[in-house]
Design brief:
The chain is mostly beta strands. It contains two helices and 19 strands. The structure holds 2-acetamido-2-deoxy-beta-D-glucopyranose (NAG). Keywords: Apoplast, Cell wall, Cell wall biogenesis/degradation, Disulfide bond, Glycoprotein, Glycosidase, Hydrolase, Secreted, Signal, Transferase.
Length: about 280
C-alpha cells in the first residue's frame, strides 16, 4: 500500500502519506476501561489479557481515534470450555448513529469450533452479519486478525487471508462508514443467552476465570482524524473497485467463503421481507 489521495469536499486535494504507528506497547496505545484488575498489561507492555468471571467481564479501548487505515492484532482466545463467552474486537465511533466494524469470537465447549462473527454498522444500523469457522484452533496459538478500512471498502483478514469484503455501496443508497473516526475496542463478556449454539449451551462458571490474550498491535493510519472533518467523496484513480483484492486474495476469499462460512445475511431472505439489502448484489466477488 503506497500513498493515497483523497478528494475532500470544500477543501483541497489532500495528499496523505501513511503514518505508521508501529507500536508494541499496550501502555502507550490503550486504556483499560472495564473490569478493574481483570484487564492487565504485562511483559513491559508487550502482552495484554482480559478475563471474565461470574462478577464481571473486562475491556480496553485505544487512546487514539482512527480514520481509515489498517489495524492488526494478534489474539489467543479463551481455551478449554469457552461456551457462552464472547471476545469482541472492533472499531467503533460514538453516539446513536455510530459506525462500527466488528469481529466477535463466540466460544464453544472443549473441542468444538469457535465461530467468528463479523458485522458492519453504518450510521447506527448493522444487521450485516457474516459468520465463519476458522481453519485452525484459535486457542492454542496467537493468530492475526486485521481490519483494512478505506473509503471504498472494508476488508476483514485472518492471518492475512481475506475472509470478508464490505464494499462502499453508496451509489445504490447504502451508507458507508467514512465520516466518523473510530476507536479500537475489545472486551470479553458473558453472552450465554445467544453465543453458543444460539444460546443452548451456557457458560460453565466452574471453569472461570476465562482469559484471552493480545499482542503485536499495529495500526497503520492514512491520516490523523482532524484533517477529515469534511466528507471524502472519492479516491483518485488507481485504487478503484477492481483493485480491492488481487487474484490471489480473491482466490483465498472464495476458499474461506466456500468452506468456512457459517452464515451470510445476504443469503437469508426471510430476515428481509422488504428485499435483500442492496449492498448484497453490488459488485460481488
Ligand atoms: C459449537 O459447536 C457446535 C457443534 O459442533 C456447532 O454447531 C456450533 O456452530 C459451534 N459454535 C458455536 C459458537 O456455537
Amino acid at each position: 500500500m503506497g500513498g493515497f489521495n483523497l478528494l475532500v469536499v470544500g477543501v483541497v486535494v489532500v495528499v496523505t502519506t501513511m503514518v505508521g504507528t508501529c507500536s508494541a506497547n499496550f501502555y502507550d496505545d490503550f486504556d483499560l476501561t472495564w473490569g478493574e484488575n481483570r484487564a492487565k498489561i504485562f511483559n513491559g507492555g508487550q502482552l495484554l489479557s482480559l478475563s471474565l468471571d461470574k462478577v464481571s467481564g473486562s475491556g480496553f479501548r485505544s487512546k487514539k481515534e482512527y480514520m481509515f487505515g489498517r489495524i492488526d492484532m494478534q489474539l489467543k482466545l479463551v481455551s478449554g470450555n469457552s461456551a457462552g463467552t464472547v471476545t469482541a474486537y472492533y472499531l467503533s465511533s460514538e453516539g446513536a448513529t455510530h459506525d462500527e466494524i466488528d469481529f466477535e469470537f463466540l466460544g464453544n465447549v472443549s473441542g468444538e469450533p469457535y465461530i467468528l462473527h463479523t458485522n458492519v454498522f453504518s450510521q447506527g444500523k448493522g444487521n450485516r452479519e457474516q459468520q465463519f469457522y476458522l481453519w485452525f484452533d484459535p486457542t492454542t496459538n496467537f493468530h492475526t486478525y486485521s481490519i483494512i478500512w478505506k473509503p471504498h471498502h472494508i476488508t476483514f483478514l485472518v492471518d492475512n487471508i481475506p475472509i470478508r469484503v464490505f464494499k462502499n455501496a453508496e451509489s445504490v443508497g447504502v451508507p458507508f462508514p467514512k465520516n466518523q473516526p473510530m476507536r479500537i475496542y475489545s472486551s470479553l463478556w458473558n453472552a450465554d443467552d445467544w453465543a453458543t449454539r444460539g444460546g443452548l449451551v451456557k457458560t460453565d462458571w466452574s471453569k472461570a476465570p476465562f482469559t484471552a490474550y493480545y499482542r503485536n498491535f499495529k495500526a497503520t493510519a492514512f491520516s490523523a482524524t482532524s484533517a477529515f472533518s469534511n466528507v471524502v467523496t472519492s479516491e483518485i484513480q488507481g485504487s478503484g473497485e477492481d483493485s480491492v483484492l488481487d487474484a490471489y486474495g480473491r482466490r483465498r476469499l472464495r476458499w474461506v467463503q466456500k468452506y468456512f462460512m457459517v452464515y451470510n445475511y445476504c443469503n437469508d431472505p426471510k430476515r428481509f421481507p422488504q428485499g435483500i439489502p442492496a449492498e448484497c448484489s453490488h459488485g460481488r466477488f
